[in-house]
Amino acid sequence: MSKKAFVFAGQGSQFSGMGMDLWDSHKDAKKLFEIANEMLGFKISDIMFHGSEEELRATSVTQPALFIHSIAQIVAMEEDFYADGVAGHSLGEFSALVAAGMLSFEDGLELVITRADAMQKACDITKGSMAAILGLEDQKVEDICKNISEIVVPANYNCPGQLVISGSMKGIELAMAACKEAGAKRSLPLVVGGAFHSPLMEPAGEKLAEKINAMTFLSPSCPVYQNFTAHPSEDLNEIKENLISQLTGPVRWTQTIQNMANDGFTSFTEVGGNGKVLSGLIRKINSELLIQTLL
Questions:
Q1: Active-site residue identified among 69, 129, 197, 279
Q2: What is the pLDDT of residues 8-45, one digit of tens each?
Q3: Which position has the higher pLDDT, 191 or 199?
Q4: Cα(151)–Cα(130) distance, rounded to whole angstroms?
Q5: pTM for the whole thing?
Q6: In the annotation, is 197 catalytic?
Q7: Which one of 90, 95, 166, 198 is the catalytic residue?
């Protein structure tokens, strides 16, 4: 029997106007925006609906905005929402936890706000960056990162032939040059606020861990495939630990989708953001899978 998965978008899929249709057409979804405006202390709904690309790119806006949009889409589906499993890319993992009934919307948003704030502060302390390496095998990129004396690590295993690295400015510069020399088709610096999913995020990890460990998680209604292991877990303490480790460890998206396909998942619906990023990656990971979007 084939299984259906919902996958939740992370940073990079935001767009101006996101969620405006839900605000206008669905009272329960609109309520989520109102709750979020109150919790954040500013009208994030206005920025989501009318904000510029630059305004939406700020970490303190992007992360809660994508989370709100994702859960609003799920709420608007009402009884039509059913998943045999869920997963989320980076930030999207928090949306996946809420969709699986492990956290309330309010608790999930509180964690996202804490995460975004802690990550921004870590970026201010330690300047770092990220780069996409295209056209090299993962193992080759891993070896290059290991042989550079500066901090640089694999951060996002997005799909075969696309691995994002993260680290210090110098580390990224040296790794990009080494990857080009090794035959990478392209090495592209990314416009990001810092070195996400790297050891440079450790200061953020401590604050997030404190908040996560103080929060009550419920058993999931379906398996949640986690970024850090690319596998689902039913142990609540392990799920919390993986969520914390995700901040400084890699997003194993390629491995997650491969594992889900091996476990019988054939249909994937992308939730949140522009509906294009994860769908595009999944097609490159396994072209035989059925991919849909809620947009």
A1: 197
A2: 999 889 999 999 999 999 999 999 999 999 999 999 99
A3: 199
A4: 11
A5: 0.95
A6: yes
A7: 90
